[in-house]
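> forwarded from #structure-qc
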């Protein structure tokens, strides 16, 4: 038995969409990318969406567009992927790491305010493992309108807030998605930025195309003379038709993907709840589409359990090592006791759309065997 921690959910539907792109002869950003952006808007309820090549690019571009630059500070959780603080550094700003809540694993709004300074430009919370963070509570904690909020929704595509999919309606200034191979929805590689206004989206479209005023596809599709003027600082962050085609196929299947992930997480809850050595992170899986399934065990047992599972063909581990303890970032910020405690006790076990219920039973049985 070999059970990976995650695996892409792709097949014939995605290949069919890609074949249509190859047949069209237009492989770069174009009509299919526009269709994908429109489909994302219909799904999330957002009016202004800009597709980009990765989730990291989405974070960087959103920070850049909202004014983060040299001398600025951005507050963010340490328990997140390293792309978040790296995106801050790409703007020339400084990441300031904040502690998290023990039960949600999301940034703790009450611990944000002591970190704010006149240099704070933005707060960038992560929807960890699929649970949307409380942006309204974060806004209240900030208490200042000049500080922007960028939701890192890389984990939470499809999750809901008050019955509506994560988008840009909870008070954030931008929302960023990642569509890498193992996310809830994949484009192979890709990302997207949701913003509030058409003018903000127009600036982002230019910035993701090296600051050029109008892309080749925009000129061609609108039958206008190509305008290659560079009007601002820009980057090479566009999404190709190929990646957008994968995303379109995924969106058509997403309801089934989400339901499967939710059912598997509920099954894990049922099987692991009786074990006294396991603490579960309770989630409302009617609203949360889980990106990961996390359990908590005593620090003295966690690494031994990981080794036991791996020896039995089950991929498991700590998906994210706290950024403030990474060698590159260890100089940044003070101790974060909740993050550091959980980093010794958290364990991510396999969860993906193609996983069978029998495999969930097998993983749970191995965990039970370890503790018995």
């Amino acid at each position: 038995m070999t059970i990976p921690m995650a695996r892409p959910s792709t097949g014939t539907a995605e290949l069919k969409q890609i074949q249509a792109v190859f047949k069209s002869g237009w492989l770069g950003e174009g009509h299919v990318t526009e269709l994908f952006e429109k489909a994302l808007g219909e799904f999330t309820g957002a009016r202004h969406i800009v597709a980009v090549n990765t989730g990291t690019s989405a974070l960087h571009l959103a920070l850049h567009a909202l004014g983060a630059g040299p001398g600025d500070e951005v507050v963010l959780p340490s328990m997140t992927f390293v792309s978040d603080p790296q995106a801050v550094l790409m703007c020339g700003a400084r990441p300031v790491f904040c502690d998290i809540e023990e039960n949600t694993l999301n940034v703790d709004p009450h611990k944000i305010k002591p970190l704010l300074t006149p240099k704070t430009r933005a707060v960038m919370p992560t929807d960890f493992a699929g649970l949307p963070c409380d942006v309204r509570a974060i806004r209240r904690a900030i208490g200042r309108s000049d500080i922007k909020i960028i939701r890192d929704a890389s984990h939470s595509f499809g999750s809901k807030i008050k019955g509506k999919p994560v988008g840009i309606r909870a008070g954030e200034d931008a929302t960023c998605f990642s569509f890498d191979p193992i996310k809830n929805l994949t484009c192979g590689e890709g990302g997207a930025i949701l913003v509030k206004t058409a003018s903000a989206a127009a600036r982002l479209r230019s910035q993701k195309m090296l600051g050029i005023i109008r892309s080749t596809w925009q000129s061609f599709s609108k039958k206008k003379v190509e305008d290659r003027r560079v009007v601002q600082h820009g980057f090479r962050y566009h999404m190709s038709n190929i990646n957008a085609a994968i995303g379109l196929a995924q969106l058509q299947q997403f309801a089934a993907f989400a339901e499967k992930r939710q059912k598997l997480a509920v099954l894990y809850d049922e099987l692991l709840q009786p074990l006294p050595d396991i603490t579960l992170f309770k989630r409302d899986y009617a609203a949360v589409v889980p990106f990961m399934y996390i359990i908590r065990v005593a620090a003295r047992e966690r690494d031994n359990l990981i080794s036991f599972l791996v020896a039995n063909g089950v991929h498991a581990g700590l998906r994210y090592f706290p950024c403030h303890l990474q060698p590159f970032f260890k100089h940044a910020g003070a101790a974060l006791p909740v993050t550091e405690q959980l980093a010794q006790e958290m364990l991510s076990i396999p969860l993906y759309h193609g996983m069978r219920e029998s495999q969930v039973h097998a993983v749970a049985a191995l965990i039970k065997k370890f503790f018995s």
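QC bot note: The chain is about 35% helix and 15% strand. The first helix runs from residue 12 to 24.
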